[in-house]
Specification:
Elements: H1 28-36, H2 39-53, E1 55-66, E2 69-80, E3 85-91, E4 105-110, E5 113-117, E6 128-132, H3 149-154, E7 159-170, E8 173-183, H4 184-190, H5 193-205, E9 210-218, E10 223-233, E11 240-250
Antiparallel strand pairs: 1-2, 1-11, 2-3, 3-4, 4-5, 5-6, 7-8, 8-9, 9-10, 10-11
C-alpha cells in the first residue's frame, strides 16, 4: 500500500448525496420483474451495461478502521468504460495534528496501471508515480484511496450469492437494491484483461477472497452505486483491517479525456517513507 495509507487510518463517511430510501419507492411492476429475475445474472449483466453506456462521472468514498483512528478518503472524477481509462481527484484526510490538508492527488486509471500526481513522499511536483496494479496485494481495490470504478463493477462478476432487497432511490434515481457476496478469484477469471491480474492479486492478498457487497442497479441495467467491504491484514501490526469502499456512478455518456503521462514525466526515484 502507498505510504499515506500505512498506520492507523479509518474512513467513516460516504460521499455526499447517496440518499437511499426504503423499499416501495418505485412502481410494483419493476419490483415484480426484479423478484422474477436471477439476481446473480442481473448483476453480471449490469457490468456489461456500463460498457454499453460508454462513460460516467464517479464519486468514491473509502472508509477504513484500525487502532481506533478514523479518517475519510474521497474521490471525484470520470471513467471511460470502453477504453478502461479514468481520472480521479482524491482528497486525503488532515494530517494527524489536524492542522493542514494534503493537496488532492490526481489519479489516472488504466488497464493494469495507476498513475499518481501530487503523491508526496519526495516526488517532484511535476512528476507522476506509476504503479503496476498486478503487483499490489489488494490489486488497487484499496491502495489508491479509491476503487477503480470498473474494477469495482467487475468484482460482481464473481458474485456467488445475491438477493433482491427491494426498490430504492440513489441520488434521485429509482434503482433495484441487491445484496450478496462475491469471490475475487472467480471475478478474476471472468474479468476484462486489464483487471484479471489485479483481481487475482487481491484474491491472494486480502484476508479473505469473499467480498460482501450492496449493489444498486437502475432500470436500464446500469450500476448506479456499489459498496464493497474488503478485509486485509495490516502488515505492521498483523491485525485485520476492515475497509468499506463506495462508488457512485452518474452522468452517463459524459465526454472523458484521459491522457497518460509520457515516460519522461514518470518519477523513477525511490519514494520517501511517510
Amino acid at each position: 500500500m502507498v505510504a499515506w495509507q500505512h498506520g492507523r487510518r479509518v474512513a467513516t463517511a460516504v460521499a455526499a448525496g447517496l440518499m437511499i430510501c426504503g423499499s416501495g419507492c418505485a412502481g410494483h411492476g419493476h419490483s415484480e420483474d426484479a423478484r422474477a429475475a436471477d439476481p446473480v445474472e442481473e448483476l453480471r449483466r449490469a457490468v456489461g451495461a456500463l460498457v454499453s453506456a460508454g462513460s460516467s462521472k464517479a464519486l468514491t468514498s473509502m472508509e477504513m478502521a484500525t487502532g481506533g483512528t478514523r479518517v475519510t478518503i474521497r474521490g471525484e472524477g470520470v471513467y471511460d468504460y470502453a477504453r478502461r481509462l479514468g481520472r480521479l481527484q482524491v482528497r486525503l484526510p488532515q494530517d494527524p495534528a489536524g492542522t493542514s490538508e494534503h493537496r488532492p492527488i490526481t489519479e489516472l486509471l488504466a488497464p493494469g496501471a495507476l498513475f499518481m500526481k501530487n503523491r508526496g513522499a519526495g516526488v517532484p511536483a511535476d512528476k507522476w508515480v506509476r504503479v503496476d496494479t498486478a503487483t499490489l496485494s489488494d490489486g488497487n481495490l484499496v491502495t489508491g484511496g479509491a476503487t477503480d470504478p470498473f474494477a469495482a463493477a467487475e468484482v460482481l462478476r464473481g458474485a456467488r450469492t445475491a438477493t433482491y432487497v427491494g426498490e430504492a432511490t440513489v441520488a434521485g434515481t429509482s434503482v433495484r437494491h441487491y445484496r450478496g457476496t462475491a469471490d475475487l478469484a472467480v471475478a478474476a477469471r471472468s474479468a476484462s484483461e486489464g483487471n484479471r491480474a489485479p483481481l487475482r492479486a487481491a484474491a491472494k492478498g486480502f484476508a479473505t477472497a469473499e467480498v460482501p457487497f450492496d449493489a444498486y442497479v437502475d432500470h436500464q441495467g446500469r450500476i448506479r452505486k456499489i459498496r464493497h467491504r474488503f478485509s486485509f491484514v495490516n502488515g505492521q501490526q498483523k491485525d485485520t483491517v476492515a475497509v468499506a469502499s463506495t462508488t457512485l456512478l452518474y452522468g452517463f455518456g459524459v465526454p472523458v479525456t484521459v491522457t497518460l503521462p509520457d515516460s519522461k514525466d514518470i518519477y523513477a526515484g525511490k519514494l520517501a517513507e511517510n
